[in-house]
Amino acid sequence: MDIDKSWMNARGIFLPVYRQGVRNFIEFARPKADGAGRIKCPCKRCVNFVYHHISLVEEHLLRFGMDKKYTRWVWHGEGDPHAPVTHDFSPKVVRHDVGGAAEPVEHSGIGSLLHDLHQAVQSNVPASTEAPECSLDQERNIDEIEGSSEQYAKLVRDAREPLYPNCEKISKLEFLMKLLHIKTVNRWSQKSFDENLALYKAVLPDGERLPKSYSETKTYMRELGLGYIPIHACKNDCILFYKENEQATECPKCGESRYKMETRKRKKIPNKVLRYFPLIPRLQRLYMSTKTAEEMRWHHEQRVSEDNILSHPTDSVVWKDFDAKHPNFANDPRNIRLGLATDGFNPFGNMSTSYSMWPVMLIPYNVSPWKCMKEPFVFMSLLIPGPTAPGNEIDVYLRPLIDDLKELWENGVQTYDSISRRNFKLHAALLWTINDFPAYGNLSGWSTKGYLACPVCNKDTSSLYLKHGRKVCFIGHRRFLPANHSWRTRYNQYFNGKSDRRPPPKELSGVEVLEQLEAIGNVTFGKTSGTRKRKRTEAELNWMKRSIFFELPYWKHLLLHHNLDVMHIEKNICDNVIGTILNIPGKTKDNAKARLDLQEIGIRPELQLIQQADKYFMPPACYSLFGEEKKSFCGWFRSVKFSDAYASNASRYVGNNDSTISGMKSHDCHVVMQRLLPVVMRGYLNGEVQAALIELGLFFRELCCRKLKVNLLEALQKDIVLILCKLEKIFPPSFFDVMVHLAVHLPKEALLAGPVHYRWMYPIERYINFNLFVNSI
User: Fold this and answer.
1) Domain limits, the chain
2) pTM score of the predicted model
3) CA atoms of 401 and 414, how far apart (whole Å)
């Protein structure tokens, strides 16, 4: 269809040629108006996302101008030879808005959902194949839809089918989708859902077409691509009954039965079920909708980069190095970079019940900063069952996800791009993982306990065993200072009693890590008596296994594999500081055993125990509060109030006797460390302690900014070394557990991977209620 569109490029919306062109467009689109006289508005503000009356559309075009990207008027009657077949769901069912005007089902969202689903069917054809020409309102028999399956045809029928005879408000499919959404948000039980369905069936007119139970209703979710794949697992986490073991009835490693030994029920019940939400269809769906396809190009087309400023993972060293090593992957901006996060939670919401279920989340980094790490773009891939944490056996459960990631990297998948209206080969790569420190050890294979607990320092970790406290401390941060720094040889009585001329530990590359992993033999997974405990040899260092991520061809070449979670490190440091300052029993790092360790090491004589007759006394420390000082300190915390959604009021964590502060959540520690502690301690602690803790709070405050300057990160790397050395002069060695030590590596990681808020667990824990996922299954 040849239409004159030269007026769209007119350099002024008030020119006569433009105004005449608008009138011609309105006459062209008028036959496409619905029963209420509405069409999609193609102005620059609405860009075909909003329906308006045709007279209001003309006004918008004269006020705001026509969207220049809308060169083929496919929404207003002009056919596109390259457009896929799209079906109209409006003839049978309409609904009414508040004003009473009829709105086709297509406009309600169900039509768009089915449209995207149909692109998934069509995207299986070769990339060179062009879809047949078809106008948007073309009526065709369902059975003649090209490329459609019976599953898709059934959904189309349900979208057109009214809830009951002569119903003009809502279709059967839309009603069921809204009912399932209400169940998930309000945490209905399956029993309550069935009872509601029974009530609706009783009150609706004869001929209603609702399913009888929740089990029947769930089939609609699966048909819409919102389901999951159940994969049976061994009771002892040895294997998945997957691929080569799919038909097995017993575990080939431990001999445990696949099913529970219940004879009364005819249906066999598996011991454990892994729920896998397939990755590939979900990534394809991001490009099948025009609402997200453009957003997935943001990092390439809309991002404005600033010199020496890190505002998005795109600016990071890891991203740029990955693009340089894999230019074919980088050439297509539609290829997706992913981050992975996992953590355990209790689905029952009762802390007295011992249960640990582990969701595995994936985050696409292509999108803009204001959408990245938000709920619509963070999706669950795996739901690992309990009742115990998978621990080292998490690799067993990651197998289906790794298989999909390998397929996405090596071969790619045919995907329909709703913007270019062409199929393309979609590839994806996993850049890093984000976990708290215990989960870091499970995914990386490096044990986060013992003398070599730091995975970054590796075999060169500086640690010391405290004989009386029976714990390992991580002191010796002077080795990170410049070689000629005076503290390396002075003030030994404040450190470990010795000079320290060692160089900083060398950070290993992925290839060097693989060389270390050669010392590890075949690790047998499973929580059985034969595999539960295995002593490591000296050559194995702290390695427990070769991580499954090394099966990804590009993994060994990444500059950063696993991120240290700043939020959890900051929380642990805050708990250590508060517990020691207030001398909280069980939380303080300064007790009689810590003072005996000072004597054992031969440092800090002013803090060592004093013997008087047959009793020992602890000299008061400059960093501890007692009596009325503690009550005044806690009273100030109790009086602090915050605005809604900023943080919990501190009074929630102050004890009844105004002498303890406990139970703070991660974000509360984040606020206390950066905002409150530097203020409140000024009237209670001496200048040296104040200076060190204020500098520590400012360090985390600068590190957690949304934009990071490269020269600032380099300065923070120097500052944190000095801060930790100052803290070593103040607090006893027992204060320095591995979480305090890990702070020394945070600026380097920020330089490699970009701003912190893209690489911590707090957004995931805040925006995603894991209980909702469990309740929706």
Assistant:
1) 6-76, 94-223, 277-445+547-562, 566-758
2) 0.80
3) 18
